[in-house]
Amino acid sequence: PVPDHKKDEL
Amino acid sequence: MNIFRLFGDLSHLASILILIHKIQTSRSCRGISFKTQALYVAVFVTRYLDLLYAEHVSIYNTFMKLFFIGSSCYILYLMKVRFRPTQDPSIDTFRLEYLLGPSVVLALIFNYTFSFTEVLWAFSIYLEALAILPQLFMLQRTGEAEAITTHYLAALGAYRALYIPNWLYRYFSEGTVDPIAVVAGIVQTGLYVDFFYIYFTKVLRGQKFELPA
After folding, report:
1. Mean pLDDT across B81-102
2. Which controlled-vocabulary keywords does the entry list (chain B) (predicted)?
3. What is the ipTM of this complex?
4. Inside any domain, residue B156
5. Which of B17, B52, B83, B141 is most buried, judged by most C-beta within 10 A?
6. Residue B55: its pLDDT value, please?
7. A10/B12 Cβ within 8 A
8. Quick check: B68 and A10 CB within 8 A?
9. Chain A residues with CB-CB distance to B58 below 8 A
10. Which residues does chain A have within 8 Å of residue B68's beta carbon, measured at their own beta carbons?
């Protein structure tokens, strides 16, 4: 599963 | 957002501005690896094209992504067009296949979901971890660097180093871990250890950046 917090990191 | 990530991102931003400043004021891209810069374009484009399809995160996030894509392309323009005669491919000899190949393979094996966008994201993470190698290799070959080039590398390394306390902070405050980013990030930061040693013991004491013979 994709960690949902990862998309906010650059 | 925590202060480690904020200062990490600002350090990343600063490193790019330092590099552009160096190229424009000296009117030369001597000492800068074109291969490393080209790899950063690949990293940013493959990771940040999610602007086109992923849901909106924040204005900060969008601005930074656009800045990193735009500025890295601008640096390639400066190196290949504007100051082309000052760029010397004969000392920029690291083989790109050694970095692209493993990044593709790792991305196909270690990803969060076997989908086009997630494999692309993982590829960009692995490639970013390795992208500095042509630059460090070039530094090793020439054995010395202009002070401003070392400030660029120090800011870039600081950005990576600051992401580590950011992940620790997020682990304790949110209970989240992003194993792909963390492992690649630790490897990436590790590549700077030798550089930082010389930067702190020489450059910050006013001496020239020179590698021991």
Report:
1. 95
2. Endoplasmic reticulum, ER-Golgi transport, Membrane, Protein transport, Receptor, Transmembrane, Transmembrane helix, Transport
3. 0.83
4. yes
5. B83
6. 86
7. yes
8. yes
9. 8
10. 10
